[in-house]
């Protein structure tokens, strides 16, 4: 590539972007290894680690027994010993079997040791519904983890974030949880081979607008962007905010957006009660109350275990039409 030439974008998918991020991490640091159920010979439950075992060998890509508490605990021990483990948990529902390790060990050891024991651990897991995997494989529980001090919680929603969030996560001295929405793995698009480092501390404006703020993250971002297109067709200009990092929340970006638009819709695939949407709404009320020209709207999943039947699952989830309707209520 000659001087002044821009690197060409390459066609890729969210899954392939994640795989390339893993490959880069394994190549660049001998301390990095990947472990989890079926990450090796099978190539990962969702195909993200396909081919990495053959490239890096069984010491760097390690299949584990079906024991989330056991292998997450092993990852914590490896991090304490100076390694940089990437632990994959198949789905967020199964992470509950390791919640004791994540909350009582990974998130607390630095504090409880007076700063002596850092846990530079990355845990990846699939979250979300929309793929007919029923109640034990489909819930969005990342808001639960965003409740816990001592960890960072990421939700990459774009090809760029899927490709480039892993490196700064591995560089973080604290545990980092990465939630990959299952509906995004097949999303394809153009990705530049070199970008600016991903900023894990700030939300991103995915579309600028003046009439309403659509605030979301992860698998709901495409729906929010589609809603913004529909709203534009009827003369409503939407600001679309991708939170990206769920802990710590970038409340400044949310407040700035509400100051521009004076109305807000928070879209969250989790259940409404006690949700991340509730936290974002509360912070808007605390910090931007006098900017609001209408009550904050929330669009969340129905408060039921996620159904298996496709039409019932679609009815339970936030959809583009629901976001449009909430925005039109707010605008009046």
Per-chain topology:
Layout (H helix, E strand, L loop, with lengths): L9 E4 H15 L3 E5 L15 H5 L4 E3 L4 H13 L3 E8 H4 L3 H8 L2 H4 L9 E6 L14 H4 L6 E3 L4 H6 L1 H6 L4 E6 L6 E4 L12 E4 L4 E5 L4 H13 L4 E5 L2 E3 L3 H11 L2 E8 L4 H13 L8 E5 L8 H7 L3 H12 L1
Parallel strand pairs: 2-3, 2-4, 4-5, 5-7, 6-7, 10-11, 10-13, 13-14
Antiparallel strand pairs: 1-8, 6-12, 9-11
Helix pairs in contact: 3-5, 10-14, 11-12
Distance between the termini: 53 Å
* Sheet with the most strands: spatial strand order: 3-2-4-5-7-6-12
The amount of beta strand, in percent, is 15-25%
Write down the overall mean pLDDT. 96
Gyration radius, rounded: 20 Å
- Judging from the principal axes of the Cα atoms, what is the shape? globular
List low-confidence stretches: none
Count of DSSP H/I helices? 14
Strands, total number: 14
Give the quaternary arrangement of the chains. single chain
Helix content: 25-40%
Helix-strand makeup class: alpha/beta
Give the ordered list of helices and strands.
Answer: EHEHEHEHHHEHEHHEEEEHEEHEHEHH
Q: Biggest sheet, open or closed, and with what strands and sense?
A: 7 strands, mixed
């Amino acid at each position: 590539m000659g001087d002044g030439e821009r690197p060409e974008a390459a066609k890729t998918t969210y899954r392939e972007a994640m795989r390339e991020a893993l490959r880069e991490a394994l190549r660049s640091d001998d301390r990095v290894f990947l472990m989890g159920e079926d990450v090796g010979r099978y190539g990962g439950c969702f195909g993200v680690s396909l081919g990495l075992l053959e490239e890096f060998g069984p010491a760097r890509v390690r299949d584990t027994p079906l024991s989330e508490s056991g292998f997450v605990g092993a990852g914590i021990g490896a991090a304490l010993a100076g390694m940089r483990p990437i632990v994959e948990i198949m789905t967020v529902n199964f992470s509950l079997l390791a919640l004791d390790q994540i909350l009582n060990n990974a998130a607390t050891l630095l504090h409880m040791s007076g700063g002596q024991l850092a846990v530079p651990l990355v845990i990846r897991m699939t979250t979300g519904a929309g793929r007919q995997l029923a109640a034990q494989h489909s819930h969005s529980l990342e808001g639960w983890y965003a409740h816990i001090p001592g960890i960072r919680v990421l939700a990459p929603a774009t090809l760029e974030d899927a490709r480039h969030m892993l490196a700064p996560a591995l560089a973080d001295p604290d545990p980092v949880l990465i939630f990959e929405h299952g509906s995004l793995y097949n999303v394809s698009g153009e990705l530049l081979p070199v970008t600016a480092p991903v900023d894990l501390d700030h939300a991103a404006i995915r579309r600028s607008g003046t009439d309403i703020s659509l605030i979301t993250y992860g698998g709901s971002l495409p729906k929010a962007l589609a809603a913004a297109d529909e709203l534009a067709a009827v003369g409503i200009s939407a600001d679309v905010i991708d939170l990206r990092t769920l802990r710590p929340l970038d409340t400044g970006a949310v407040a700035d957006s509400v100051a521009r638009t004076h109305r807000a819709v928070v879209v969250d695939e989790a259940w409404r009660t006690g949700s991340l949407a509730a936290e974002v709404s509360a912070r808007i009320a605390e910090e931007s109350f006098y900017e609001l020209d209408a009550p904050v709207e929330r669009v969340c999943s129905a408060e039921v275990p996620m159904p298996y039947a496709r039409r019932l699952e679609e009815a339970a989830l936030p959809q583009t039409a629901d976001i449009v309707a909430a925005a039109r209520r707010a605008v009046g």
